[in-house]
Design a protein that fits this description.
It contains nine helices and nine strands. The chain is α+β, with helices and mostly antiparallel strands.
Amino acid sequence: MKLKKEGVGKAHSKIILMGEHAVVYGYPALALPLKGIEVTCQILPGQKELERDKQDPLVTAIHAALDHLAVTDRQLTYTISSQVPERRGMGSSAAVSLAAIRAVFDYCGQALADQLLEELVNQAERVAHTNPSGLDAKTCLSDSPLVYTRTEGFRPVKLDLSAYLVIADTGLHGQTSEAVQKVKNQGNQAQPYLEQLGHLTDQALVVISRQDLTSLGQVMTQAHGLLDGLGVSCPEANALVAAALEAGALGAKMTGGGLGGCIIALTPSREAAERISQHLAEKGARETWIESL
Ligand code: MEV
């Protein structure tokens, strides 16, 4: 196989609107690609062999791609440039792995089918956290919002809400694997919370189809209460959720694995989104983004 002088791969990030954690237990989740927030990986010839590191999802992703292509020359190096803040529940581990696998295939001049890409990224995601539902990889691969369940896979959903989502970063690393473990340790006690979260995602889909923003906001805030009850939120995320509601958001919740990471707030107009975004920055959000829904 003739290797190129450089391989480049890109991937976009994602945000979970509803259903995080419950999705691990077979309930539905609703997630959106954030197409404007990207990661780029570049693979270049290096001076020494790239060592395997089972703790590192990025290096695992690169080796998984090289193993698949049966490449023996592993003298290479990589760079990552990312608009996705690391470990903030925006799919950065899945996005980084996707970009890296695409970069390896580009470096080797090989075509890459989506299904294989998803298999390889899920291998790396199992390193990032032991029992990934597959939602992050799927959403980072998707161009449209999707509903995902572990058993039934995904289906695209139409979101045409004339609404805006403010995403605000607590500035703290989210801890997905710890949070997933924390829920698992609760055994049967977590079950009513997970069930209700699943039910709220179903409800969110109904109110989305009716373009009922007020109810969607309420459902999001209820989901936050349940996630906090499960112990996967944190004081900083709770404070930003409260600040968003105080500033007039229709609803707000943590998003992703939690124990840090980001919150999202629903607003009916760009002006409201900008005002809430400003308020969240004053209340300590590290960074904010506005996405139209
Ligand atoms: C992490 O972004 C989402 C979780 O539901 C875990 C998963 O789906 O694998 C917490």
